[in-house]
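Q: What would this chain look like folded?
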Amino acid sequence: MSVVAVLTAVAIVLAVLVAIDLLLTVGIVRRLRDGEGLGTGKPVVQPARGHRIDLSRDAKAWPDGAAQLLTGTALVAMVVPGCSTCERLHRAIDELKPLPVPFVVIGQPEFDGLEVTQAYLSGWHDAIPLLAPLPYEDLESFGRPGAYPVVMMVENGKVTASGNRLHEVTAAMYSAADRLDAVSNQR
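A: My prediction, written as structure tokens:
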């Protein structure tokens, strides 16, 4: 057998192995993106526009007053300590002060512990801190978000805009503020 034949056979085997590796990688990435293989079997979903927040859907009860905060009009952020994107959101919100609508910042106590989360939330000045009863990915009320931060505009318990960056919700926030101003001026 000639050297050319051996090299051709080796090249073909390597090409087949690379193709199989690429197919497996694409399949794994697709399963992770769709929320499969994460242990829950349910896809991870950000609360989309139109999503109705229903705190009764969660396995554990929310703290007193949570329903009132989340069924009115508010800018809501779900954050975790140590998240660099959450810190960028924090700085962006600080630059907008005063905010034209109430601002609720939600933390999950199971992430780093209750004391760490409470201290972190208290650093969000002018925000109403709220502890979620479960990890975010288990919150049916918010569609089981899995990427942080989640920032959304909520009006009458319905999400009017959501994303992972403040600029994705600012237009909805100012529109809600205009509607609140119009209602208060009519009184």
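The chain has a mean pLDDT of 85.
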